[in-house]
Amino acid sequence: MTADLSQLVKAYDVRGVVPDQWDEPMAELFGAAFVQVTGADAIVIGHDMRPSSPGLSRAFARGAAARGVDVTEIGLCSTDQLYYASGAFDLPGAMFTASHNPAQYNGIKMCRAGAAPVGQDTGLSEIRELVESWLDSGAPAFDATPGTITQRDTLEDYAAHLRALVDLTSIRPLKVVVDAGNGMGGHTVPTVFAGLPLDLVPMYFELDGTFPNHEANPLDPANIVDLQKRVPEEGADLGIAFDGDADRCFVVDQHGDPVSPSAITALVASRELAKNGGKGTVIHNLITSWSVPEVVREQGGTPVRTRVGHSFIKAEMARSGAIFGGEHSAHYYFRDFWNADTGMLAALHVLAALGGQDGPLSQLVAEYDRYVGSGEINSTVDDQAGRLAAIKAAYQGRDGITLDELDGLTVTAADWWFNVRPSNTEPLLRLNAEAKDEPTMAKIRDEVLETIRA
């Protein structure tokens, strides 16, 4: 193993190819480093369905237990189920998953007690430094009685907690197609939906970390084609797709048409605000639709704009006491869920909203989907900073246009906006544009792409 972990330890998690970039002995070192940095005397660990996950998870547990820490293994779970356990038990936690990455990848999402995130600025860089220093000689001996490793099933408790947050008992019966992508949604959905007035049509519920049907990344349009076809075939009211570790959900309406994550953010925000007496802060990142802050203000709430990335959302939620947060990537964060993200809770909100009225989903979400967006368009560039500077020069000083650099460059006019952000890990610029109508959006999108790709 190389002593350089820069390609393995990302901004928010550990993620890489097994066994090329990391393996069980290294996972054991991560377990020891995690408990040293967090100062924990007990932790909780879960894992997804990838072939390498049980072995990596158990190695991490050994590394933690060797340093006197008691470990609770909750076994197969979704990432938000691990967050539930971290919050409910008030313990630091580690989830073994590579989310939507291909089968040869695996990773660790770590959190402190109460599901508080561990990222580069909140402990992950220190964990990386310890693991690097131990690679050759191993973790130093620890003079203490080893901790215990015990197993506990949390699936029923997790499901009950979610159902207590959203009342679905009195909704009209709904037919819902769920594409789990052979990921952890196939494990959690049957228990969470049990006893609800739902006619569930399962797709790819078999747990298979080789992803035989399609990648478990519903934000890629290619991966929801089967769901889009199946929903109208079944005469279903809607379709829901989960990613590999089932912490994100993506929704399609009764026609199989995708519903924008921004529209879902606005819908759930309105429900959370109503539950909170029309008051509260809602976090949205800077590339969600204009619809989100508009709806939040209309409902009496206070929208707060942040950079892209879950660590920024969670930090701002904790700072402001926000009741809800949403991202364009279909991550949804709830104060009632320890400020952590849970696609399952967002899905229950959509089901409750749809089942609480008589109209179809397309009609329900229309009031939350007011603008035309480009989606995220990636361009490979040789000089990220140079291209950004060229875009800034092209728009700076124009009448009626404002610029800000909270995250990349955002340019805003009366009837359109766009944001260009550099990727942290690849030579890419990411463009998102939105306007009040399709011709305006297309014009500004193409104008910016011409500058990016010049």
UniProtKB/TrEMBL annotation:
SUPFAM superfamilies assigned to the protein according to its UniProt record, in alphabetical order: Phosphoglucomutase, C-terminal domain (SSF55957), Phosphoglucomutase, first 3 domains (SSF53738)
InterPro entries xref list: A-D-PHexomutase_a/b/a-I, A-D-PHexomutase_a/b/a-I/II/III, A-D-PHexomutase_a/b/a-II, A-D-PHexomutase_a/b/a-III, A-D-PHexomutase_C, A-D-PHexomutase_C_sf, Alpha-D-phosphohexomutase_SF
CC cofactor: Mg(2+)
Keywords: Isomerase, Magnesium, Metal-binding, Phosphoprotein
Taxonomy, superkingdom: Bacteria
All copies of domain Alpha-D-phosphohexomutase alpha/beta/alpha, residue ranges: 7-133, 156-256, 263-371
Domain named Alpha-D-phosphohexomutase C-terminal: residues: 376-450
Keyword Hydrolase: no
Phosphoprotein as UniProt keyword: yes
Pfam family, one: PGM_PMM_III
PANTHER family hit by this protein: PHOSPHOMANNOMUTASE
Record family assignment: Belongs to the phosphohexose mutase family.
Annotated NCBIfam families: PRK09542.1
Protein name: Phosphomannomutase/phosphoglucomutase
